[in-house]
Specification:
Shape: extended
Largest sheet: 12 strands, mixed
Low-confidence stretches: 254-264, 440-446, 491-531, 677-723
Number of strands: 19
Mean pLDDT: 77
Bound molecules: adenosine-5'-diphosphate, magnesium ion
Helix content: 40-55%
Strand content: 5-15%
Distance between the termini: 87 Å
Length: about 750
């Protein structure tokens, strides 16, 4: 374990303007600011106030990226390689050079920042170190407004921040933090790792808008997950390196360079406020509760702050005069951070699979050794013959009245254990009452002979138990047969059942109201379905036919049907291949038995030449197996497609249903308002009805009107028109006749 305070460094961003207000002293470890005193206490005070802050090292304006990497990042990378966790974070106001330091400048290769240089360093190390095998995974998390986003998900083409997968925090019972939905991408080489960095930065850029100003208000955490192991060893070393580009640290409510008000000013970024709270709590020795949970960022960086990590902070400051307040704030923050002590430990763990493999190998070796020493091959269990022989030996030993009698089973733990276990059983069976300590003669190994009544009772019980057993056996047989039947049909069903059940209703050409919707809407629709009058059903049929999505639905249905047929064919092929394999196996077995029998009979000399028939059968089996595998693979692929199609279809159908409901409600509402003035049907509107929408309007309006006329309380009765079968039948006839006419009109007009 390594105890270490957080290392702090400062970097001053180059400025073109003169008049810098800072100085670097003490061989580059002290950063000083001199600020003219302001209008404190209402009068001009021309004294100057100076501030001094100590750092591990200060990188002045001319410092190169390489120098920074060598001093700051390389030691951290080395400790990560050794199995410790590491974090480097950059803190400072917007435009002070955080991104430049962590990721690098966009223009020159030499401006590469800590991330690309660290990656390069790590991969170079891998190629030189042949004693360890390493793997790297990368994650890239952006935290904006307390929400986490995965910058690396390759499936998401982000156009907004919200399009990126949302990352959430889970805490396990041991209070370890897990990030749900944050993808870990393996990077086999430097190029792949850089590609990931690029992908993340691009996503970050695309997602930014002038409104959200994500790059100044969000935190980005680029994490390198390293796993190293010595070849052949079961010990894994897993370490993480977080490279963190924090949000801009600027504050509001500044009161100028007066000094005493700095701590009162507020961060623009709330989560930086929580970061400061955590840092304050950690730097106060007496505090036991550290408020990590207050924000996502402090939760994610929990280990890096006061935990199992070697942590380094880079305070980025701007040298310009107008930024001096912020620069001083940044340095003050760094001084607090420097008080935090972390305890980093080696992240070693055992790989259970490897350990088991190694132990198995060891057992095998020991068995081999044992066989060599004893001259006999030992199996795990004693053979029946051995057990029988032991039983005899044990009996001789027990029957021997000589107190010095010995039971010698040889140096074999299996035999020794077996004898002990037998003896224990015997002792336990002996009545406990007759066994008292010191009185070993009381151990009766043969139980007392029971009385005739007892014998009868036992016999009766035996008969009863036999009956019970036979009942159970017959039940079991039935159950077994049922299972077998199910299994034998399962061949067909297995691959198709899920398809069949969900596609069965698709063979029905028409969309029967709610029948084939997904479970939740189906439930809703069932309820409504009860209220669906015949008239309304008819209206739905027409609505559906004219709906713009209907074509797509029909297409998808047709495609689904086609896929279903294909899947069925594939399923049959899979089945037949499996049956063939089974057949061939039987033949092979038969053949082998025949040959063995012939060998035993001495009819044929045992031949070294392989049997051509057997060869042929084997080849056939292989062929069928391949066929089975291929077809099964295809079937699986098709299943995915079918499931996808089903989802699409369900979504479309649900939308259609919803559109209809909305339209119906709307129509019913407007009828309710217009009916009083327009009590009679309006045939004059029909000539304009060549547009499908118009057809729908009129038909439905008419239906509703009719229902309205028949009812004193129209809206109520609309819902209940199913109660008037005669009305519905009339309506139906009317609608059909009308539709025919309209179709004709449509044709004429076209
Ligand atoms: P931040 O991430 O802190 O908001 P940036 O890293 O984006 O700030 O820096 C702001 C601008 O200053 C960028 O154009 C960057 O290239 C430039 N810059 C920052 N630090 C340096 C430096 N040390 N040398 C040269 N240019 C720098
Ligand atoms: Mg930045």
């Amino acid at each position: 374990m390594v105890k270490q305070t957080i290392q702090i460094f400062a970097r001053v961003k180059p400025t073109t303007k003169g008049g810098a207000v800072y100085s670097v002293e003490d061989d580059g470890s002290c950063l000083g600011f001199v600020v003219p005193k302001d209008l404190a206490d209402g009068f001009i005070n021309n004294k100057r106030e100076s501030y001094k802050f100590r750092f591990q090292k200060i990188f002045d304006q001319s410092a190169k990226q390489e120098e920074l990497f060598d001093t700051v990042a390389k030691p951290v990378a080395d400790s990560v390689l050794a199995g410790y966790n590491g974090t480097i974070f950059a803190y400072g106001q917007t435009a002070s050079g955080k991104t430049f330091t962590i990721t690098g400048g966009a223009e020159r290769y030499s401006d590469r920042g800590i991330i690309p240089r660290t990656l390069s360093y790590l991969y170079q190390h891998f190629s030189q170190d042949s004693t360890m095998a390493y793997t790297i995974h990368i994650s890239y998390l952006e935290i904006y407004n307390e929400m986490g986003f995965d910058l690396l998900d390759p499936k998401h083409e982000a156009s907004r921040l919200e399009d990126l997968p949302r990352v959430t925090i889970l805490e396990d019972p041991d209070q370890n933090i897990h990030l749900k939905n944050l993808s870990l991408q393996q990077a086999g080489n430097e190029k792949e790792a850089l590609n990931l960095l690029f992908l993340g930065d691009t996503n970050r850029m695309i997602a930014e808008t002038p409104m959200n100003q994500a790059s100044t208000r969000s935190h980005c955490i680029f994490t390198i997950h390293l796993c190293g192991r010595e070849p052949g060893s079961a010990t894994l070393r897993r370490s993480k390196l977080h490279l963190v580009d924090l949000a801009g640290s600027e504050r509001v409510g500044r009161t100028g360079a007066g000094g005493q008000h700095f701590t009162e000013s507020k961060y623009i970024n709330l989560s930086l406020h929580f970061l400061e709270q955590v840092i304050i709590a950690l730097s106060e020795k007496s505090r036991s509760h550290i408020p990590y949970r207050n924000s996502m960022m402090t939760s994610v960086l929990r280990d890096s702050l006061g935990g199992n990590c070697m942590t380094t902070m880079i305070a980025t400051v701007s040298a310009e005069k107008r930024n001096v307040d912020e620069s001083i704030s940044t340095c003050r923050f760094a001084q607090r951070v420097a008080l935090i002590k972390n305890e980093a430990w080696l992240n070693e763990e055992l790989d259970p699979a490897l350990l088991i493999a190694r132990l198995k190998k060891e057992v095998q070796l020991l068995k081999g050794e044992l066989a060599m020493v004893t001259g006999e091959q030992r199996s795990e269990k004693l053979s029946p013959q051995e057990i029988q022989r032991l039983g005899e030996q044990l009996k001789v030993y027990l029957d021997d009245s000589d107190s010095e009698a010995m039971l010698d089973v040889g140096p074999d733990m299996r035999k020794i254990c077996h004898c002990f276990s037998e003896l224990k059983t015997m002792v336990c069976k002996a009545t406990p009452a007759s066994f008292t300590a010191g009185d070993t003669s009381a151990i009766t190994l043969v139980k007392d002979i029971p009385t005739p009544e007892e014998v009868k009772k036992l016999k009766d019980m035996l008969v009863q138990r036999d009956n019970e057993i036979s009942i159970l056996v017959s039940m079991l047989k039935k159950e077994k047969k049922r299972v077998q039947d199910a299994v034998s049909t399962a061949g067909n069903m297995e691959a198709q059942s899920s398809l069949q059940s969900s596609t069965a209703n698709l063979s029905d050409e028409s969309l029967k109201g709610s029948e084939d919707l997904s479970p939740l809407p189906r439930l809703l629709q069932r309820k409504k379905g009860l209220e669906l009058s015949v008239g309304r059903q008819e209206a739905f049929e027409i609505f559906k036919r004219d709906h713009k999505d209907q074509l797509t639905i029909e297409d998808n249905k047709a495609l689904l049907k086609l896929r279903y047929t294909e899947a069925k064919a594939l399923g049959e092929k899979v089945n037949s291949a499996r049956n063939k394999v089974n057949d061939l196996k039987k033949q092979l077995e038969l053949r082998r038995r025949q040959i063995a029998a012939q060998g035993v009979m001495g009819n044929l000399p045992e031949s070294e030449v392989p049997d051509p028939m057997e060869e042929k059968l084997l080849a056939q089996i292989e062929e069928e197996k391949n066929m089975y595998k291929n077809t099964f693979g295809k079937l699986k692929g098709m299943k995915t497609e079918i499931e996808h199609l089903q989802l699409l279809l369900e979504k479309q159908k649900f939308k259609l249903q919803k559109d209809f409901e909305d339209w119906w409600t709307h129509e019913a509402g407007s009828m309710q308002r217009s009916v009083p003035e327009e009590t009679s049907a309006a045939p004059t509107r029909t000539p304009t009805l060549s547009r499908p929408m118009a057809i729908r309007d009129t038909v439905s309006t008419r239906m509703i009107k009719k229902e309205h006329e028949l009812s004193a309380s129209p809206l109520l009765n609309l819902r209940e028109s199913g109660l008037h079968p005669q009305v519905d039948a009339d309506l139906l006839a009317f609608i059909k006749a009308r539709q025919n006419i309209l179709n004709k009109i449509g044709q004429v007009q076209r």
